[in-house]
Write a structure and sequence with these properties.
Elements lengths: L1 H10 L3 E7 H8 L4 H12 L6 E7 L4 H10 L14 H4 L6 E5 L2 H5 L7 H22 L3 E5 L11 H20 L2 E3 L1 H13 L16 H14 L3 H10 L1 H8 L5 E7 L9 E9 L11 E4 L5 E7 L3 E8 L5 E8 L2 E8 L2 E8 L3 E2 L4 E2 L7 H7 L4 H4 L4 E4 L13 E3 L10 E11 L3 E8 L5 E9 L2 E7 L7 E8 L2 E14 L2 E8 L9 E3 L6
Parallel strand pairs: 1-2, 1-3, 3-4, 4-5
Antiparallel strand pairs: 6-7, 7-10, 8-11, 9-10, 11-12, 13-16, 13-18, 14-15, 17-24, 18-23, 18-25, 19-22, 19-24, 20-21, 20-23
Helix pairs in contact: 2-3, 3-10, 3-11, 4-7, 7-8, 9-10, 10-11
């Protein structure tokens, strides 16, 4: 059956319909989107071929909302993200290939919770959608594309949830005799290739939507999964290397940093570091990695090879940005280790009014908020567990020390609350400002920020102009505590709280801790 479709592609007659969300919309709306990449590759393999790839992608769509779109489009004109493509007309013409790729928004919003009943309901909705669209297009081949990465930490709670949905979709495909296109797997492979060249290489531009390298990965996976291995190889050989090279000048030394779990009883923090030498820099000899850093930093368990290796570094990240220089042979890189936060999540807070995106903060008051206001032990007053959080390149806000992305902590349910705190030592009393902002592209976030029990801001931060505001605060001499108590309604959940000095004060003497400190 795939062979028959390939024969039509050679003649330029195959009609491929893509059903999905904003990522599918971007396959056409983005200059290097995956539909464009597939066109290019097929035309290279079959000169004169003009594939007819129709992108029905809608921002925010999941399985249930696409069921509504399909139903509405039976009788009404319906438009999604790509201009000029009307759903009713697009589904009225037979297709050679139907590709459905959904699950991102079901995870991101989320429309699906991490429990068996919710997941099974999602699967049954997927089954119904497939049957409904097949009945209109009568495709020769139907394929399900894996939902791609949500954050660039493949082990994050969101990606673990995505794995569950992709696994259930694959089982559904087996039951219905459909193909599975390894779009998630291929994106991970490209991410790995890029990270081995550059520490902050990305396959998305906002930790959800693919960038050029990500779209190439999706196109390779789709072509390969549909049996177009030669076209997939054209992309792998002709365009992927250029996308990788755009990110980094070779030769070089790349690395990734993984904070290891802590008992929350010591200031010491262990990090696992993986590093790679580019092919031009690798040699027959095996250079030993060494570090140069401030007082107290140690290296242990180094396992070098000719092309890379692993090691652990141990120290106290008590500056806002802790710089540790890693040297391997003649190459070196500065490792930036941001100061930690202490965070908790998983607190039910159904106090949002979705109609006007307001939040009833008074209803959220409880023992933890009372303890925050009186500078008491709010950690003990919380009913949910706390953990250290380190900003990093895999999440919204990157590795900026003031950023907290709760996607690293929880597969957040709708109307979930959490809290982030850090203790700050100042050599003297001083005034300062706190820049509060949100870098997420979608979501609703309420934030209550206090310093030493004094509330300096409370409001829906995502409703502020440009999702940011600046407030006045004051540190006393000695230990202070900054607390950001937050609630989100849906979608992304991230904020930044950045301390800024006044009148030239660089705040260089400040020290930070994720352990509760006595004033």
């Amino acid at each position: 059956m795939i062979g028959a479709v390939q024969a039509q592609l050679r003649c330029g007659e195959a009609r491929v319909v893509l059903v999905g969300d904003s990522i599918t919309g971007l396959s056409r709306n983005y200059a290097t989107g995956f539909a464009h990449q597939m066109d290019w590759a097929l035309e290279k393999v079959y000169p004169g071929c003009h594939p007819n790839i129709v992108a029905l992608g809608g921002s925010g769509q999941g399985i249930r909302s696409w069921l509504n779109i399909e139903k509405r489009s039976r009788s009404e004109e319906t438009f999604l993200d790509v201009k000029g493509i009307e759903v009713k007309a697009a589904l009225a013409q037979p297709a050679d290939v139907l590709v459905i790729m959904l699950g991102m928004n079901d995870t991101l919003c989320p429309y699906v919770n991490d429990d068996p009943a919710s997941i099974e309901s999602w699967v049954e909705g997927y089954r119904e959608l497939i049957i409904n669209i097949q009945s209109r297009l009568h495709p020769k081949v139907t394929a399900l594309g894996e939902a791609t990465l949500c954050t660039e930490d493949v082990n994050s709670p969101k990606n673990r949830m995505m794995d569950k949905l992709n696994q259930r979709a694959a089982k559904l495909a087996e039951e219905m005799h459909l193909l599975v296109l390894p779009t998630n797997v291929t994106m991970r492979e490209v991410l790995k290739q890029g990270r081995e060249r550059k520490p902050d290489f990305h396959v998305t531009y906002d930790f959800v939507h693919p960038n050029e390298a990500g779209h190439i990965a999706v196109a390779i996976a789709m072509l390969k999964g549909l049996g177009e291995t030669a076209a997939a190889q054209k992309l792998a050989d002709g365009r992927l290397p250029k996308a990788l090279e755009k990110a980094v000048p070779l030769p070089g030394l790349s690395y990734e940093i993984e904070p290891l779990p802590s008992t929350n009883k010591s200031e010491l923090q262990n990090y696992r570091v993986r590093y790679w030498l580019s092919p031009q820099a690798a040699g027959a000899e095996i250079p030993q990695p060494v570090i140069a850093a401030g007082k107290g930093w140690l290296i242990k368990d180094a396992s070098p090879t000719a092309v890379g290796g692993t090691l652990k570094i141990i120290g106290i990240p008590d500056h806002l940005d802790n710089v540790v220089k890693l040297s391997v042979g003649t190459l070196s890189q500065d490792l930036h280790l941001p100061a930690p936060w202490l965070v908790t999540a998983g607190i039910p807070r159904a106090f949002w009014n979705g109609q006007n995106q307001t939040y009833d903060a008074a209803k959220a008051k409880g023992p933890m908020q009372d303890a925050i206001a009186r500078s008491g032990d709010f950690v003990a007053a919380s009913a949910t567990p706390w953990q250290r959080y380190f900003a990093n390149v895999n999440f919204t806000g990157g590795n900026a020390p003031g950023s907290v992305d709760f996607a690293a902590v929880t597969h957040a349910r709708t109307s979930e609350g959490g809290c982030a705190a850090r203790w700050i030592f100042s050599e003297r009393a001083r005034p300062l400002t706190i820049d509060l902002s949100v870098q997420a592209f979608a979501g609703n976030l309420h934030l209550a920020t206090s310093v030493n029990g004094t509330e300096v801001y409370a409001g829906v931060l995502t409703s502020e102009p440009k999702k940011r505001t600046t407030v006045q605060a004051r540190l006393r001499k000695g230990w202070n505590v900054l607390v950001c108590d937050t609630s989100h309604m849906q979608w992304q959940w991230q904020f930044s709280a950045d301390l800024k000095g006044i009148d030239g004060d660089a705040l260089e003497d400040l020290r930070y801790s994720a352990l509760p400190q006595n004033p």
